Amino acid sequence: MSKKLNIGLFGFGVVGQGLYDVLNKTQGTKAQIHKICVKDRSKPRSLPSEYFTFDKEDILSSDEIDVVVELIDNAEDAFEIVSTALRKGKAVVTANKKMLAERFQELFDLQHRHQAPLLYEAATCGSIPIIRNLEEYYDNDFLSALEGIFNGTTNYILTKVFEENKSYQEVLRAAQVLGFAESDPTLDVEGFDAKYKLCILMAHAFGVFIEPQFVFNYGISKLSVHDIQYAREKNSKIKLVAHGRKHGEKLAVYVMPQFVDQGHLLYNVHNEYNGVVVEALFSDKQFFLGKGAGGHPTASAVLSDIAALTYDYRYEYKKLHQPINIRYSTDLEMKVYYRYSREEQLNRLRFNTILERYESQSYRYVIGTLQLSELIASEIEKEEGVFLVQVVV
Length: 393
Ligand SMILES: NC(=O)c1ccc[n+]([C@@H]2O[C@H](COP(=O)([O-])OP(=O)(O)OC[C@H]3O[C@@H](n4cnc5c(N)ncnc54)[C@H](OP(=O)(O)O)[C@@H]3O)[C@@H](O)[C@H]2O)c1
Known about the structure:
It is a single chain. The chain is α/β, with parallel strands linked by helices. The protein contains 14 helices and 17 strands. The strands form three sheets. Strands 7, 8, 9, 10, 11, 12 and 13 form a seven-stranded mixed sheet that branches. A six-stranded parallel sheet has the order 3-2-1-4-5-6, sandwiched between helices. A four-stranded antiparallel sheet has the order 15-16-14-17. Helix 1 (14-25) packs across helix 12 (295-309), helix 3 (75-87) packs parallel to helix 5 and helix 7 packs across helix 8. The radius of gyration is 22 Å and the shape is globular. NADP nicotinamide-adenine-dinucleotide phosphate binds next to helix 1.
C-alpha cells in the first residue's frame, strides 16, 4: 500500500522548479512539497514566501518531512545535506552526479547503516530510466557492455558543429547564450560530467565501484575543423562516448570522443538527447534514447524516484552480489586517431603500432594502437594543439 509523502526540497533552480511543475501536473502522485530550502535571500521567487527557508535544519530536523529531495548545484553542500538526511533515517532523492560519483562508497555505506533509501535516477542520463532497468530488468542477464552519450551539452555542440558547419568555439558561445552550456563549461566539455555518470552506472551494471579520479576522460574542447573534415570523409560523426566494457575479467571504463558511422546506434542521437546502449549475454544490444538535461525531463526522473519511495523501493545493488568475477583495469589496447601539429607532439604518446600516417602543411595525424594505461600516464589532455578520437573496429 503506497503512502503520501511530505517532501523537503533543497534547490529551486532549473530542476527544482521543474519538479514543482511536474508534481502539480501529475495527477495521483502521493507526494507534496512541504518546504524548499534555497540560498540567495535576494532572489525573487515564483511561489509564496512561506514555502521557502534558508535554514537547512527546517527540513533536516523536521519530523513532518519523510523525503529529502536534493537539487542544488554544489557537490560539497549536497554531500552534507544528503549524508545528514540519511543519518537521520530519511529517504533521499538526488540528481547530483558529481557528489554521488566522488562519495559513492560512503553514501552506499550510509544507506545500509541507517536503513535509509537513496535514489538518483536523475543523476545519470536525465530522463532515461537506466538505473532502475539495470537493477531490475538486467538482474539476471549478464552484461558485457554499457556505453553511450551521457552529456547533453557536448552532444548539442557536436550536433551543431556537424549540421551547421560552424567551429567548436562558435557553437559553444551560441550554446552558452541559449543556456545549453554553463559559463564555465569545463565539467561538460572535458568529459567529467559523463565520467561521473559512468562511474555511478558501473556499480549498477557490473557491481564495481570506481573512483572517478582513476578513470580517463578526454573531452571535445580541442576539436578542430581538420577532425570534422576527417570524420566527414569517413561518412562518420564524432560523438563523446562513455564506455564500460568487459574484456574477460577486466572492465575497461573511459570517456573520449569516438567516430560513429551511420550504422552505429549513437549516430542519430541529436542535440541534448542522450543514448545508452546496453549489451547483455542473452538479450544482445538494446538502446535507450531520451532527453539528457532540462528542467522537466530531469524532474520526470526525480518524480519517478519519489513515486518509487511511496512503495518503499530501494536499490539492492544486485550486481554486487552476483558471482561475476570482474575488476576495473586500464590494460586495454585501443585504436585511436591522433591529430597534432608539431613532430615532437607525436612522441607525447607511446604507440604500440602506427597503422596510418598523414602530413600536410597545416596538420598531421596518425592512426595507431596504444594502451589505455598509456593514455592515462601521458596526461595528453593537457597538451594543446592535438586531438584524440577513438576508432572502434
Ligand atoms: N539542469 C539540468 O538539466 C540537470 C540535469 C541533470 C542533473 N542535474 C543536477 O541537478 C542539480 C540541480 O541543477 P540545476 O540545474 O537545477 O541547478 P541551478 O539551476 O543552478 O539551481 C541550483 C539551486 O540550488 C540552490 N542552492 C545552491 N546551494 C545551496 C545550498 N547550500 N542550500 C540550499 N540551496 C542551495 C540555489 O539557490 P538560489 O535559488 O537561492 O540561488 C538554486 O535554487 C545539480 O546537481 C545538477 O548537476 C541538472
